[in-house]
Specification:
The complex is a heterodimer. Chain A is mostly helical. Chain A contains two helices and one strand; from the N terminus they run H-H-E. Among the domains of chain B are: about 245-505, no CATH class; about 510-545; about 550-580. Chain B has a two-stranded antiparallel sheet. A two-stranded antiparallel sheet of chain B has the order 3-4. Classes of the chains: A mainly alpha, B mainly alpha. The interface between A and B is large, with 56 and 67 residues.
Chain lengths: ~90, ~575
């Protein structure tokens, strides 16, 4: 546990704003590419009709992620207690 | 030599060797533990398949060792986990932790190869008793209490297992650990003994509402102890469920619930090791769903997922253990920016995170997709949807939250050393296995209980994880989940981490139960005090009356004057005379 809490002035690659923007840009391009890729292959392993609809798992992944996070936000006020709740 | 050793439970070298560790001293015991794990692994691989170690106990046939394809794959991964975790713990100079870890790992291996319920029960309880030492080894009041709760739950599971086994013996006349469900597809059709055994397995597999010992105890163990804990107990339960209850329909729904509720708790949990414990619970859900579906592909899926899961979950716990070792905490609120000082740990953690999320070319992809396909093949639409939701959930807490808040996010300003070399080697090994299993998956598939076959256009063919549809749809799900995270972060809608305790089912036995028990105790105490006071009062007044009679001034106890004595003696003689002559 030999940590020093002095802030390091040098920023790493991941902390430079430009690089973060590039990463997000790459992500967006990748996502568009993955959605479009649906047009170029035949899903002959599909078990359900919805699997054959355009970019189903793409929008599903996005929506589910947001819903899960918001459910967490809604759950927090109900179950949140102070950190020493059980020690008191 | 194998001919005689095959009758001993696999893992016995680790269990017996553990007892010799104290003689080696603090420095050598860690290395000796690694040697024991490697020896045991070598011996296990040389074991022939079959049933050995037959004993008779009170006229009942016991079968100490059963090696078949299902027990072999679990025995193998338990050994590999023990080797990796032993390397990870090489720097630990606390002999008791090494002893506990070796007995724990050896016990889990022996339990997975047990052919009857009595042998299973013995090693089932041994894993409980040895593993709690890893929780207590933290040495805090908090870990002591948590370990106590853990122990009570684990021992209870063992007691249920034994009770169920005895009922089973009564009903069927056999103690053999076979497929208990038989032709039954519902819990309701099971015998009472089988139900109790299912409940015992369910506690260890962290079924919903029976789960909270896991999130309670695992994050309280030592940095190295949690790595051991994450591998054995719950997967032993998964093995036992697959052996005894494959095809029981309720398991599908129980599994679905297990994949869902932990992901919401994981979003708001601050302690990243506790997030991993919720994540573990979610992963077990996938396996339980597979066992519930019960088709050969689904059982294979559960087994292969358990195999891959043990490695990447250990890797994630190791990366967080390294953070705990260097920084002293795994609370997200205290961390951030550690990629600058722990680049290797960051890289290994990212591989574990990618693996658990199911990115192609990593191990989670080739295992999770098998269970999802098995659900699709049985046309279980809602189960399939739940598994997709759960996959996005895994991406949220294990894929993004763990690496992001520990190693990136806002810089906490903490500058620490990279993890010790032995930790890095262990993480490197696990990371290499995550990648290796993702690419050379046929090697792992060849070890499965049966060859995984999938239906394709009405005929069966070997299951292939890498089809265009599988890869693209999985990547769509994962990358759009990442995109959602980026959107929520940039719009500041993603909840910030806060220091807090989040309630879960443990609240019931940590708050109201002690209060109720305390009140009952107080009531009994009050009643007891009253009754005793009453008795003492009665006794006192009785003794008081006696004292009045027999005291020195009492009628019976006092001394009499001589003339009175002479008078009464004369009186008595006179009366005697009168009676004699009358």
């Amino acid at each position: 546990m030999n940590d020093s809490t002095s802030k390091d002035e040098t920023q790493s690659w991941f902390e430079k704003r430009g690089n973060v923007r590039t990463l997000i840009g790459v992500l967006i391009v990748a996502c568009i590419g993955l959605a479009v890729a649906d047009l170029f292959y035949e899903n002959d392993h599909a078990h359900f009709p919805i699997e054959k609809s355009f970019a189903f798992q793409a929008w599903f992944g996005f929506v589910v992620f947001v819903v899960i996070v918001f459910l967490g936000v809604a759950l927090r006020p109900i179950i949140k207690r102070s950190e020493d709740y059980y020690d008191r | 030599m194998i001919d005689s050793l095959k009758h001993l439970p696999p893992g016995f070298i680790m269990m017996l060797g553990a007892l010799l560790l104290p003689m080696l001293g603090r420095r050598l015991s860690a290395a000796a533990a690694l040697v024991l794990s490697l020896l045991s692994l070598g011996l296990f691989c040389a074991m022939p398949a079959g049933e050995f170690g037959q004993l008779e106990l009170f006229g009942n046939q016991l079968n100490l060792v059963r090696i078949d394809r299902l027990s072999f794959i679990f025995g193998l991964i338990f050994h590999l986990a023990a080797v990796i975790a032993s390397i990870y713990a090489l720097h630990v100079q606390d002999t008791k932790q090494h002893i506990a870890a070796m007995i724990y790992a050896g016990g889990a291996i022996a339990a997975a190869c047990a052919g009857d319920f009595v042998t299973l029960f013995v090693f089932w309880e041994l894993t409980a008793l040895s593993s709690v030492v890893l929780v207590w080894a933290t040495g805090t009041e908090r870990s002591y209490r948590s370990g106590m709760r853990y122990l009570i739950v684990q021992v209870l599971s063992g007691v249920l297992l034994l009770s169920g086994a005895l009922l089973q013996l009564n009903e069927t006349g056999s103690l053999a650990f076979v497929h208990l469900a038989g032709d039954a597809t519902s819990v309701l059709e099971l015998s009472t003994g089988a139900k109790l055994i299912l409940l015992a397995f369910g506690i260890k597999a962290a079924f919903p509402l029976l789960h909270n010992w896991l999130q309670d105890a695992y994050p309280e163990a030592t940095a190295t102890g949690t790595v051991f804990l994450s591998a054995f107990t719950t997967k032993l339960a998964i093995y036992s469920l697959a052996r005894g209850f494959a095809g029981v329909e309720e398991l599908i729904y129980i599994g679905c619930a297990m994949t869902l509720f932990p992901i919401v708790f994981a979003v708001i949990e601050n302690d990243l090791r506790r997030v991993l414990a919720y994540s573990l619970n979610n992963q077990l859900g996938f396996m339980v769903v597979g066992i519930g579906i019960g088709t050969p592909l689904a059982i294979n899926g559960a087994a292969v997922h358990a195999f891959c899961h043990i490695i990447y979950k250990a890797l994630l716990f190791m990366s967080m253990g390294a953070v705990l070792h260097r920084v002293g905490t795994t609370k997200a609120t205290e961390l951030g920016g550690l990629h600058k000082s722990m680049p290797w740990t960051t890289g290994f953690c990212l591989i574990g995170a990618g693996s658990i999320s199911g990115f192609p070319l990593l191990s989670g992809f080739i295992s999770k997709s098998m269970i999802i396909t098995a659900a699709g093949q049985e046309h279980l639409f809602w189960v399939w949807i739940v598994l997709l939701i759960a996959s996005a959930g895994v991406m949220e807490h294990s894929g993004i939250k763990i690496p992001f808040f520990a190693f990136f996010a806002h810089d906490s300003g903490k500058r620490v050393k990279e993890a010790p070399l032995n930790m890095l080697i262990a993480m490197g090994l696990a990371a290499a296995m995550c990648i290796g299993l993702g690419i050379f998956y046929p090697l792992l598939y060849s070890l499965l209980p049966t060859e995984p076959m999938a239906m394709h256009h009405g005929h069966e063919e070997p299951y292939k994880p890498y089809t265009a549809a599988h890869v693209i749809t999985m990547l769509q799900l994962l990358m759009f989940a990442v995109l959602a995270f980026v959107v929520l972060m940039t719009t500041k809608l993603y909840p910030s981490e806060v220091r807090a305790t989040n309630l879960d089912t443990d609240w019931f036995y940590r708050k109201p139960l002690p209060w109720v028990l305390g009140s009952i105790g107080a009531a009994i105490g009050w009643f007891d005090k009253k009754v005793r006071a009453e008795f003492i009062d009665c006794g006192k007044s009785f003794i008081g009356r006696l004292a009045d009679g027999f005291g020195e001034k009492g009628l019976m106890g006092g001394t009499w004057a001589t003339n009175a004595m002479a008078f009464w003696a004369a009186m008595l003689l006179g009366i005697f005379l009168l009676i004699y002559y009358s």
